Amino acid sequence: MGERNYVGARQIRVVHAGTGRQVAPWWQITWGVMPVPEESARQIWAKQATQALAATAFGPVEWVGETGSTNADLLRRSATGAAAGLVRVTDYQNAGRGRQDRTWETAPGDALLVSVLLRPSLAADLLGSLTAAFGVAAVEACRSMGFAKVGLKWPNDLVVLDDSSRGYAKLAGILAQSTIHGGDIAVVVGMGLNVRGTELADGATTLDRLGNPPTRLDLLVAVLERFDALYQSVEHAQKLGQHAPPGTGQEPDHWMRYRQYSVTLGTNVKVVTNTETFEGAATNVLANGALEVLTAAGLRTVVAGDVTSLRPA
After folding, report:
1. Domain boundaries, the chain
2. What is the SS3 assignment for 153?
């Protein structure tokens, strides 16, 4: 199922393809009743999102039908002087990638696939704060829409708590990539969030399995409005030197909220890296995004790897 677009006399609406119910606001136009071409619908969504985000640091919004990867698109654009705040959304990615270069593919229109171009003034070792802040923004956007069981799994996944053997199902993945041009750093933060769909990877879920899902347009605006405030918090903390890690009582706001939503911290976990596998208790996340795990042999710091929670037998 997807979003279908029609034009009525002096108005346009987006209705659900299966139920025919309206799922987006009305916009004033002057045409007769006729289907709206998909490209015209995307232009409308892009314009509406850009207008809704006018008071934030984000925009303009571009919305395309298909691309290889929205992250890759903005990384290329950053090299030619694209301004910070540019947002790119697509209905379908044919070369989407997640963490550790894993593929990410959903049916056209089933997921919110979005990337944002940033030009932060952060030290390189603190760029993990951006992924954490974006994750917090996405969790809070979902919770504001009634999806109360959405949380964060280290390092960059949105998950939904459930009764499976793992204790959660994956809802979204977030990936930040950076590049340097002429000494200036550019960061692209991208997210793929499953809104609807039936053909899912093992262990994944969608918003429409949890309740009535929002439109991708509404979800996009909700996430970026919240990320705007958190991004300012990250930049402000950098200027004040307040990048104490969670658990110290002195960490910036985005880290306190990350800790609040984490389904990893406070649990026993299994860690699989490129070179080893070990178990322990996840106790902390550092300012660079690394996870601290207390093992029988002592405290370990995990920068990259697969971490899964171990549920009691």
Report:
1. 1-36, 37-240, 264-309
2. strand
Query: What's the token pair of residue 64?
Result: 């395309």
Q: Which two tokens stand for residue 187?
A: 């960061």
With a cut of 50, which residues of the chain have pLDDT below it? 1-2, 4-13, 15, 17-34, 36, 313
Q: Distance of alpha carbon 257 from its chain centroid, rounded?
A: 15
CATH architecture of the domain with range 37-240: 2-Layer Sandwich (3.30)
Residue 267, class by beta-carbon neighbours within 10 Å (0-12 exposed, 13-18 middle, 19+ buried)?
Answer: middle
Q: What is the pLDDT of residues 241-280, one digit of tens each?
A: 655 555 555 567 888 899 899 999 999 999 999 999 999 9
**The CATH classification of domain 264-309, taken from the options 3.40.50.720, 1.20.120.530, 2.30.30.100, 1.10.760.10:** 2.30.30.100
pTM: 0.83
SS3 224: helix
**Across all residues in the chain, what is the average pLDDT?**
84
Edge-first strand order for the sheet with 298-302 is 298-302, 291-295, 277-285, 268-272, 306-309
Q: What DSSP letter does each residue of 82-143 carry, written as one string?
A: PPTT-EEEEEEESS-B-GGG-B----TTSEEEEEEEE-----GGGTHHHHHHHHHHHHHHHH
Per-residue pLDDT, 208:
94
